[in-house]
Design goal:
Elements: H1 5-12, H2 17-29, E1 39-40, E2 43-44, H3 50-58
Antiparallel strand pairs: 1-2
């Protein structure tokens, strides 16, 4: 499927370059250095299975 012109123009004109740079620096500053990374209420989930994420969200 070809890239829609509106998407292509955002990539080529750098519409979101500053935002991407800011977000990247923000997460690196928080110690996140890879994906996937799941954080619930400020706590990293070491083994982000659906069950563990749900348990963390429920406060268990």
């Amino acid at each position: 499927m070809p890239t829609p012109p509106a998407v292509a123009s955002c990539i080529t004109d750098g519409s979101y370059t500053d935002w991407v740079t800011t977000q990247t620096q923000s997460v690196l500053g928080e110690g996140i250095n890879g994906t996937p990374n799941v954080r619930v209420n400020g706590t990293d989930i070491a083994n982000p299975t659906p069950e563990n994420i749900l348990a963390a969200a429920a406060g268990n």
